[in-house]
Amino acid sequence: NWGELAYSENGKPLIENGFISVSHTKHLLLIAYESFPIGIDCEFDRPISDLLIKRLNLNPANPLKDWCTLEAWIKLDDKPKHLTEAIPNHIIVESLELPYACTCICASYQKIKDIKVIKKD
User: Fold this and answer.
1) What residues contact 23, with CB distance under 8 A and at least 6 apart?
2) CA–CA–CA angle 28, 34, 37 (5° rounding)
3) CB atoms within 10 A of CB 1
4) What are 77-80's contacts with CB under 8 Å, separation 24+?
5) Residues 58, 66: contact at Cβ < 8 Å?
6) DSSP for the chain, written as a single string
7) Distances (CA, A) of 10 to 29, 43, 96
8) Is 45 exposed, middle or buried, given 0-12, 13-18 or 19+ CB atoms closer than 10 A?
9) Are strands 102-108 and 28-34 parallel, antiparallel or unpaired?
10) Residues 21-77: pLDDT tens digits?
11) What is the C-alpha R_g of the chain?
12) How many CB atoms within 10 Å of residue 83?
């Protein structure tokens, strides 16, 4: 039981019993739940413009992973201003393997012990 659902000023979902983060892209909806703060982001694989890579200082070798990491960190801290900041080294980043051509990242300040992907058609 997650308890009551509320939203932060920035739209982050807040629950009484734990922490959640939500990401959706096309037909996928992902919900990360943990006993500590967590952020999740997922994007279907696609090219990222050179302008965005330069503006956000994304790694040109894998800009989508950097983009998803940045978005997951924003959701973790509920701070949109992170978009223009460098991701600190103490953020723990976990990649999720999904049965789709996509990039999915979870971010937290603690090691995520158990990641389960539940597919529902």
Assistant:
1) 29, 30, 32, 40, 41, 42, 71, 75, 104
2) 100
3) 6
4) 77/37, 77/39, 78/8, 78/10, 78/12, 79/10, 80/10
5) yes
6) ----EEE-TT--EEESSSEEEEEEETTEEEEEEESS-EEEEEEES----HHHHHHTT--TTSHHHHHHHHHHHHHHHT-GGGGGSPPPTTSEEEEEP-SSSEEEEEEESS-----------
7) 19, 21, 25
8) exposed
9) unpaired
10) 999 888 888 999 999 999 999 999 999 999 999 999 999 999 999 999 999 999 999
11) 14
12) 12
Tokens 């080294």 correspond to: 89
- The position carrying tokens 């703060």 is 37
